[in-house]
Each structure stands twice: as structure tokens, then as C-alpha cells.
Q: What sequence folds into this?
């Protein structure tokens, strides 16, 4: 049974940092494209970043230069380091997995196969 469990969310002031984690189990983690998505109240889900099986990364323009996605295949864990957080980064953040070797760009309309339950990030002024 595939499980993706996010953690690390919380409340932070604008300009601060958070690191999200996503613990994966139930599948061959290293063979899957992994992505981070977010959904703010009243808005559609937005792709944030993705990392493919070779470790290549892609980012949404809105987070480029501030967020860093990484993966530890030995620990079956995905990370999202978020720096210089802005009010508009407030959202529920989800990790997702798909058996693609190369990840779609976050702006692509593509529905990953497996999803976590999400972790809330709230940025305040």
C-alpha cells in the first residue's frame, strides 16, 4: 500500500524558512518522479517543484530561487526547503509520486498517481 506522509508545516513570519518532508512507503521510491504541490483557499492546485529519478529538478516561476526540492533515496524521503517565504506561499502543501522517469513541469496539467494528505503552511506578516 502506497503511503505519502507530509510533515514540517507550520506558521512562520514572512521572510522566514520552513522545511517540509514527505516520507514514502509501499513502492520503489527511487524509480518515481516526486513533486510538491500546494492549494490555497479559493484557488486551484498549483505545482511547486518536481524532482525526477536522476535528481533533475524543475520549479514553478513563483518559487524559483527561494524553494529547493531534494530527495533522499536511502530514506525514501522527499524534502522542500522553503526560504524567503511570502504571504502568498500560505497553502496546504502536498507531495505526490508518479512512475514517470522524467517529471512534468509544475505548470503542466498532469495528475500524479499517488498523493499525500498535506501539511499546512501559514505565512504571516
A:
Amino acid at each position: 500500500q502506497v503511503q505519502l506522509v507530509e510533515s514540517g508545516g507550520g506558521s512562520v513570519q514572512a521572510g522566514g524558512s520552513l522545511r517540509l518532508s514527505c516520507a514514502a512507503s509501499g513502492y520503489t521510491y527511487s524509480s518515481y518522479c516526486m513533486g510538491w504541490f500546494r492549494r490555497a483557499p479559493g484557488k486551484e492546485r498549483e505545482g511547486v517543484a518536481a524532482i525526477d529519478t536522476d535528481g533533475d529538478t524543475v520549479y514553478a516561476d513563483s518559487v524559483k530561487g527561494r524553494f529547493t526540492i531534494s530527495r533522499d533515496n536511502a530514506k525514501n524521503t522527499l524534502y522542500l526547503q522553503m526560504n524567503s517565504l511570502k504571504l502568498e506561499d500560505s497553502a496546504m502543501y502536498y507531495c505526490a509520486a508518479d512512475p514517470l522517469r522524467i517529471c512534468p513541469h509544475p505548470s503542466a496539467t498532469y495528475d500524479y498517481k499517488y498523493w499525500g494528505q498535506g501539511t499546512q503552511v501559514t505565512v504571516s506578516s
Remarks:
- DSSP finds no helices and eleven strands in the chain.
